[in-house]
Amino acid sequence: MPGSPPFRVVIVDSLNPQQFRQLADRGAAGLLVPEVGPTTNRRQAVAALVRGAEVNARLGGVPRGRPLIFPSHVSQVSALQGAPDGLIVVSLPPRGAPRQNDRRYPIVVIGRGFHGLLESPTTRIDGLVSIVDVAPTALGLAHGSLSATPSSDPVARLTSLDQQIRANNRLKLPALIIIACAVTLLAAVRPRAAMTAVLGALLVSVGLGAAHVSSEPLIRKSHMSPRCAAQ
Question: The domain containing residue 95 runs over which residues?
Answer without folding.
Answer: 8-156
